[in-house]
From TrEMBL:
The name this protein goes by in its record: MITD1 protein
Pfam families referenced in this protein's UniProt entry, alphabetically: MIT (PF04212), MIT_C (PF16565)
PANTHER family in alphabetical order: MIT DOMAIN-CONTAINING PROTEIN 1
Ranges in a coiled coil: none
Lineage: Eukaryota, Metazoa, Chordata, Craniata, Vertebrata
Domain of life, source organism: Eukaryota
Cellular-component GO terms for this entry: midbody
InterPro entries xref list: MIT_dom, MIT_dom_sf, MIT_domain_contain_protein1, MITD1_C, MITD1_C_sf
Biological process per Gene Ontology, one example term: midbody abscission
SUPFAM superfamilies: MIT domain (SSF116846)
Source organism: Mohoua ochrocephala
Amino acid sequence: AGAETVKRAVQLDTALRFQESLVCYQEGIDLLLQVVKATTDTAKKHRYRQKISELTFLSDGKYHKQIRIEENATGFGYEKLFHEYLTEVVSEVWVEDPYIRQVHQASRNSLYNFLRFCEMLVKGPCKVKTIHLLTSYDGSGRSQQMSVLEEIKQSLSNYGITLNIDFSSSIHDREIRFNNGWMIKIGRGLDYFKKPQGHFSIGYCDFDLRPCHETTVDIFHTKHTKKI
């Protein structure tokens, strides 16, 4: 599987499809690392280490892509935005957003949006085991916020996923990180969707059909290969 992934990465690189090749390079590295850990043959370990070093060189550096979501644009549901970065090797996710705290708000339902994001992770193809959430307390609705987050935590545990929740009074940045090296920063965090016209209007259930607020999405990749 690792060899096929690397072969695909080289083909994409040659075709100047750098974003897709970077995903394949990183997945190939992770798969080869698993092989290194499993093998006891010293000569094979050395060859695998050399190959990993070559791949790390090819995929080294930083990547940046920016997506501009226009006012009232549709087609930007979570699956569409994140799917190409959620490869099978993703097992850990970090969400930092100060506004994952309210259920009822004029323009957004941040806790529901976080739940929808978690549902996307549950569906795969990634094999997420741990989600880390860093947010801030909801002053007047703290008890409800804690109750909802605990319910989400218990529900995720039914799928073998641990939700770790931490709070900060000084957090202001919004970013989502995956342990395959991808980082996504959305100007409005997960709450970039507009309030639906009604509970039975198109776009209420399907976020791909929900109009968006204008925002910018910045996507980065930083080499994170572990030492071997």
